[in-house]
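pipeline stage [seq->struct] | target=Serine--glyoxylate aminotransferase | organism=Candidatus Synechococcus spongiarum | residues=382
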Amino acid sequence: MEDKLTLMIPGPTPVPERVLQAMARHPIGHRSGAFSATLERVQQQLQWLHQTRNAILLLTGSGTAAMEAGIINTLSRGDRVLCGDNGKFGERWVKLARAYGLQVEVIQAPWGQPLDPADFAAALEADVDKTIRAVILTHSETSTGVLNDLQSIAAHVKAHGEALTIVDCVTSLGATAVPMDSWGLDVVASGSQKGYMMPPGLSFVSLSTRAWQAYERSDLPRFYLDLGRYRKAATAKSTPFTPAVNLVFALEAALTMLEREGLEAVFARHERHRAATQAGVKAMGLKLLAKEGHGSPAITAVIPGGDAERIRQHMKERFDILLAGGQDHLKGQIVRMGHLGFVCDRDVLTAVAALEAVLMELGEGHIKPGAGVAAAAAKLWP
């Protein structure tokens, strides 16, 4: 059947009908009073989601634009930074930092394992001269389904007293709590096509007071991503450059839906879907890539034991369900099941049931019919 594709990938994620309808509105002038009012409302909603009093700046670009903006607006060439790397997007931070001439020291963990907060603590405590300017990491590592212990790492950075915490929250914001103020986070970057329940095209970055102080010292080149321009424009309920007007309409609609659901309910839903997905795949005899207890509420990476790409192909051909594959050395070895954003219990249960059916059809493992579905359902409706 045509037009029945179900996205169960870590992004883009499914988009609600009312968000699509909002995006289909006729554009209005981005310097108009009506658009200023929309920006003001969206700002309040974004601060609610980020759990912060800091301004949330809207960029027309992907989450990587927000990540890059976080670096070039707070650091200077030659600055010493610690970068956490336990997956594809931790790797991206390392590449980004090195591209701008930063002195990068990498704190690594194997793909599938969480970053160890003790490693950051040791490096920061050894820095008696306070030369480390930032600790940079990914909260939810999309490539492996691992949720890093951001709260503990940020606490160690705060104890250091000088370094900033710069974090990629692209697949964690909207899926789990990221209380920017209470955790003392300095730069938080995210993207629209994940937990925000809308199409790609917008990214978001928020800076703490300490990060804005670092902005004044930063000497890295910037123009379009100069966050000072965005902050100045935001005080006037405007933007420095032409924004994606219709995506802002979509953003307002999506955030309004999240507000109606309630912050704690949103996080509880994602946690329930993580638990159901993990229980379902385990009941099929499959292994999880992420270390036990460190699975992301946004994405579950599964080691099927057979040809992961063949399994993905059959999922799409038989059921029009799209799963993500592995990246780099994990290509062909894992499938990644997204369960973030506009995803409901039915979607999770359907994906688990479809995976079970495909594995049985392909003769992968020794699966007891219905085992995965029963285990997932028990987590959804305990």
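stage status: PASS
auto-comment: Residues 188 and 355 are 35 Å apart (CA to CA). The mean pLDDT is 97.
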